[in-house]
Structure formats: structure tokens, C-alpha cells
């Protein structure tokens, strides 16, 4: 635990000294202050804390289902990401949410499994979250935070934390691990647009129907309307209806890619 506190404080406070300008998969320039190994270590340790402090699902069928979807998506990632040891955990939380952390860690709430009506819709949300990892958005948002001083304050607060749950929530928030875990800095609109596009492309390459991405968002919007705060992720994502419409408009162009994947034998049968 002390090692985690020290690492987090040091990498955030000292980040400005090692800033690097890189190019995101979308082509835009990013300012990244942490190394992949540092982010992966933070992601892995935070994931262990979350598993220790949050209730885990005992539904073996759900675990196999989510694992199947993740494996199909990961198989289509670039080699540097595909070669990671990806880990999946279903949490016994009825709020519809999912997240991915640096280091190849994926968490899905039971509520998201219930909300997603089929494997394609589940692939849409998981592909979206994996996109945040591929685009190194956690690194980018921590770097931006450090530049304006918020990162230094967060690092200092984390270094002084005494309890394991507090540490887990703070690190998870910095890395972007779901609204229910206390996200401190929501992803920007630009970042969300990037992973909307990336996630929908990824699911089509893996043999999941890209048209279901829009339908998933419609499900989340409907669920939020039935119960105030039912879908907390909507509070940190801009204009969900516009995003659903954009995904719907993109789907026909991805149909040939989806059909080609199916013709190549990429036919996920996750459940």
C-alpha cells in the first residue's frame, strides 16, 4: 500500500518533468506525462483494491459471458495491446456500468449485463471502455490535471490516505474507473467521441453487429428515465441522445466490415 501511495504521488507531482507529445490513434496530438508501465502498475493495483473492497459477482455464467466478449474484442487489438494479460471481473453491482483500466483490466457490473440485451450491445460498451485504454486517455487526463495543479493536490491527498477503500476510490477516479467509484475528472467530449468511433469499429472487426451500439445507448437513456440516477455513467457523458444518433448513422458504413469478419469465421457465440 505504501508503495502505491508513493508511486502515485511521485508520478503526478513529477510528471511535468517528463512530458511527451505523442499522436493518438485518431491522429490528434496528446500530452502524456506518465509511462505506460507506471499507468499499468497503477491500474493493476487499483483493480486489486477494487476487487478486495467491492462485492464480486458469484455468477459463473456472467463471468464466462463477459470474458468471451472481451476475448473477441482483444483479438482485434494491435499487437502491443493484444499481448497483454487481460483480466475480467464482474461486480455484483446493479448499477449499469463498465470500465477498463490501464494494464488490461476490465470490470463490468451485473447491472450492465442486465441492461445490454445481447452480446453485441455488451461488446459496444466494453469496446468503448477498452478504447479509453488504447487511446491512453487516463494518462492524458492525469497529465492535464497535473498541469493545472489539480494533479498535485490529488497526489498529495492520496499520499496521506490511510484506508484501503479511500485509496482504491481515489486511484480508480484518477484512472477513470466508472462513475460509481467516484470519477474525479470526466473524460472530455473529444475523448468520448474518439472511443465512440473506435469502439464501434472494434466491435465490427470482431464480428459484433455495430448497429447495436446505438441501441445500447437508447437502453441506457430509457433506463435513466425510468429511475432518477439509474445510469450514472450518463452524468459524465455528453448529450447521450446525440451520441446514439451518431452511432446509428455510422453503422451502415461499418456493415461491410462486420459482414467480412463474419465471413472470416469471426462469429462470437458468447450468450
From TrEMBL:
Residue ranges of every copy of the Peptidase M48 domain listed in the record: 62-250
Lineage from the top down? Bacteria, Pseudomonadati, Pseudomonadota, Gammaproteobacteria, Lysobacterales
Q: Where are the transmembrane segments?
A: none
Does the record's keyword annotation contain rRNA-binding?
Answer: no
Which cofactor names does the annotation list?
Answer: Zn(2+)
Q: What is this protein called?
A: M48 family metallopeptidase
Please give one Gene Ontology molecular function term for this protein.
metalloendopeptidase activity
Q: Does the keyword Hydrolase apply?
A: yes
| InterPro entries, sorted | Mito/Outer_Membr_Metalloprot, Peptidase_M48
Range of residues in the leader sequence: none
- Cellular component, GO annotation: membrane
Q: Which family does it belong to?
A: Belongs to the peptidase M48 family.
Location of region: Disordered: 249-271
Q: How is the cofactor bound?
A: Binds 1 zinc ion per subunit.
Question: Keywords in UniProt for this one?
Answer: Hydrolase, Metal-binding, Metalloprotease, Protease, Zinc
Q: Which GO terms describe its biological process?
A: proteolysis involved in protein catabolic process
Q: Name one Pfam family in it.
A: Peptidase_M48
Q: Which organism is it from?
A: Alkalisalibacterium limincola
Amino acid at each position: 500500500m505504501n508503495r502505491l501511495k508513493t508511486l502515485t504521488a511521485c508520478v503526478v507531482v513529477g510528471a511535468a518533468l517528463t512530458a511527451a507529445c505523442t499522436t493518438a490513434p485518431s491522429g490528434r496530438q496528446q500530452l502524456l506525462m506518465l509511462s505506460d508501465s507506471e499507468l499499468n502498475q497503477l491500474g493493476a493495483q487499483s483493480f486489486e483494491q477494487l476487487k478486495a473492497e467491492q462485492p464480486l459477482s458469484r455468477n459463473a455464467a456472467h463471468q464466462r459471458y463477459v470474458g468471451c466478449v472481451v476475448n473477441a474484442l482483444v483479438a482485434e487489438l494491435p499487437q502491443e495491446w493484444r499481448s497483454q494479460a487481460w483480466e475480467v471481473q464482474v461486480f455484483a453491482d446493479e448499477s449499469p456500468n463498465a470500465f477498463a483500466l490501464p494494464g488490461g483490466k476490465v470490470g463490468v457490473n451485473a447491472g450492465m449485463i442486465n441492461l445490454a440485451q445481447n452480446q453485441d450491445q455488451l461488446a459496444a460498451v466494453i469496446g468503448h471502455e477498452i478504447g479509453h485504454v488504447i487511446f491512453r486517455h487516463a494518462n492524458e487526463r492525469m497529465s492535464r490535471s497535473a498541469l493545472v495543479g489539480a494533479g498535485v493536490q490529488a497526489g498529495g491527498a492520496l499520499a496521506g490516505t490511510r484506508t484501503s477503500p479511500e485509496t482504491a476510490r481515489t486511484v480508480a477516479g484518477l484512472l477513470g474507473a466508472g462513475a460509481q467509484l467516484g470519477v474525479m475528472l470526466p473524460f472530455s467530449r473529444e475523448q468520448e467521441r474518439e472511443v465512440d468511433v473506435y469502439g464501434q469499429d472494434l466491435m465490427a472487426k470482431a464480428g459484433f453487429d455495430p448497429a447495436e451500439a446505438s441501441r445500447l445507448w437508447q437502453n441506457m437513456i430509457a433506463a435513466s428515465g425510468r429511475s432518477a440516477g439509474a445510469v450514472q455513467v450518463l452524468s459524465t457523458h455528453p448529450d447521450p441522445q446525440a451520441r446514439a444518433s451518431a452511432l446509428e448513422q455510422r453503422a451502415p458504413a461499418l456493415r461491410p466490415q462486420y459482414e467480412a469478419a463474419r465471413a472470416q469465421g469471426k462469429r462470437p457465440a458468447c450468450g
